[in-house]
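Exercise 7. Given the encoded structure of a 295-residue chain, write a plausible sequence.
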């Protein structure tokens, strides 16, 4: 595939997880992909102590260097740039670098997320028992990251009168994620951010959408279940999961769609996009959209 061979993309938070899967699939479609995050091969991010310990890992997995190399191996051109997406100065320098080196930007994928930095192993608890530091992780180092990158990408895309901003989120038709109010509120804010940006960008022929994957087999999920990508099928509880490449294929399909502006402002589930665009996950399955229990 070379549907995106003329596309310049920037994927934030791409050292691991969904960002890594997205970057690789964009590369497989031929794109030039700027891979950003704080973890480099020689210096992994130091703020994941709790989840790394709970997962039984020695250090946080992945790096922007490794992801960029995978992008290039897949057929694209991966460029690793270390960036702390909470720093306005660093994010500004990043976008200036992209403009200087490429002269344009076609796709921004907002994926930098701080929620894992304060994960304590508790999935469900009343909001009054949750620590306020979760707000800092999910909003100051999550929602704010997306807004900061978007406001610096927007002038470039508006001048071009062409482009797409994708915000990764979680959404199940506005159903409430019981027992995790901070996460539910943060993801709803990201969804609303994508919608609001779409209203202001549409007159300039620029699209903004939110994309919601299902339960992904990220490095942390696999470690938490004491398995890996080669052996996850031996864990029945992971039967409904999807690879991080699945959301990548969804975003690559959107980026290649000349009529993507018709979808602007919407929340799009990866399972629905798989049916619409005719792609599968890496194991050949069409994984249906994730739905909360009781749906």
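Solution.
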């Amino acid at each position: 595939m070379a549907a995106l061979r003329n596309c310049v993309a920037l994927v934030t938070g791409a050292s691991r997880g969904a960002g890594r899967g997205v970057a690789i699939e964009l590369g497989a479609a031929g794109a030039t992909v700027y891979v950003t995050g704080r973890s480099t091969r020689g210096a992994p991010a130091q703020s994941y102590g709790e989840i790394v310990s709970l997962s039984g890992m020695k250090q946080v997995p992945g790096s922007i260097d490794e992801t960029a190399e995978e992008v290039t191996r897949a057929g694209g051109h991966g460029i690793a740039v270390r960036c702390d997406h909470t720093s306005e100065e660093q994010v500004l320098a990043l976008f200036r670098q992209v403009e200087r080196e490429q002269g344009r930007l076609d796709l921004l994928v907002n994926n930098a997320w701080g929620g894992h930095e304060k994960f304590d192993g508790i999935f469900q608890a009343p909001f009054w028992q949750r620590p306020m530091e979760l707000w800092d992780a999910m909003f100051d180092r999550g929602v704010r990251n997306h807004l900061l990158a978007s406001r610096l990408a927007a002038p470039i895309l508006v001048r071009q009168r062409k482009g797409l901003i994708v915000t990764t989120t979680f959404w199940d038709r506005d159903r409430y994620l019981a027992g995790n109010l901070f996460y539910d509120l943060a993801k709803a804010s990201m969804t609303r951010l994508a919608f609001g940006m779409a209203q202001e960008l549409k007159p300039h022929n620029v699209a903004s959408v939110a994309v919601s994957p299902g339960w992904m087999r990220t490095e942390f999920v696999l470690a938490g279940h004491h398995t890996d990508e080669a052996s996850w099928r031996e864990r029945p509880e992971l039967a409904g999961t999807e690879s991080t490449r699945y959301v990548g294929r969804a975003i690559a399909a959107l980026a290649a769609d000349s009529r993507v502006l018709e979808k602007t402002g919407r929340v799009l589930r990866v399972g629905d996009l798989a049916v619409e665009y005719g792609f599968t996950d890496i194991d050949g399955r069409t994984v249906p959209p994730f739905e909360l229990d009781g749906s």
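Remark. Strands lie at 8-11, 32-37, 77-82, 107-110, 163-168, 206-212, 267-269. Students should compare their own answers with the one above.
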